[in-house]
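Notes, Module 5: Reading structure tokens.

Key idea: the token line is not a picture. It is a compressed description, and you learn to read it the same way you learned to read a sequence, by spotting repeated patterns. We will look at two proteins. The first is printed below with its tokens.
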Amino acid sequence: MKIRQLANICATAILTLGLATSCGNSDSNTATPNSESQASTTPADGKNQTAGKPRPSTVKTEQSLPKVFYSEEGLAIRGTDPVAYFTQSKPVKGQPEFSYKWGNATWQFASAENRDLFMQNPEKYAPQYGGFCAWAVSQGYTASTDPNAWKIENGKLYLNYNSAVQWGWEKDVSGNVAKGDKNWPELAKDKDKN
């Protein structure tokens, strides 16, 4: 019995070290928001409702955090539709014709309907921690993410570096979210400076 417990402790320690190592700081492609959001295509009603108009933020935080998003070549979540995680319970590739620029990143959607839902409330659908790896943020640094390593927890989308890292992160979701929430304000400010 004691040998089994020791083996479990060792395996957990090795996994934790491996997760921390595999979640490297490969986050050089970040985007920060500008003062306005722009639709790159016209909504279904034929009116471009946001072009040139500032969108007020609906996120209320104690520290007025900058919005910093992980992107690759300016594309958020590698072109994956953020709304689909909520409506289809899976990652779905977005299409360039259904794009929306928000937070200096281009977000792609599988349909005009999903794009319009995002435009109405981007904070509801955008991944937490600027789309950076939730495990890395819980550990005090940032790393890139894989759109297939995702979880919705309490109505919020979290992404991780890969499925192995996500597996470790899911062992204590609430604890890791609490640590991530604590670490993110300072990490976001650091990213905003860069």
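Here is the second protein, with the sequence above and the tokens below, as before.
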Amino acid sequence: MKASFAQLRSLLCVVACVFALGGNALAQDPAAADLMAAQQAVERADRADADQYAPDTMAMARQQLEQAQRAAQDRRERRQAPALAQRAAADADLARAQSEEAVAQAQLAQRKAEVDQLQRQLTAGEGR
């Protein structure tokens, strides 16, 4: 038996409805993407030892992430959640950058000390 145009049209309607409902499920919580990005930014900063090198900025990022998560759960404050999450992500990124800078500065200082030591050794060797 051949499928008629009416049956194909019904099938297309069903497929379109499934996609539309699936898209609505993802779009129902606009703060979810911002919260996920903020959480990932805090985790990246944590892996960069931001607690050691930028503790105040890292604490602020965690506090704002918690506020964003609470706001996302509260019906009255849900609109504020994306902005709070974005601030948390920005602070976490700043903390990570500060941490990476501090590590780079420490490595630079170590390399400079090594160069100075080698120069002293060369100078002492020339004096013989």
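Summary for the second protein:
- The longest helix spans residues 81-126.
- Confidence is low (pLDDT under 50) at residues 11-15.
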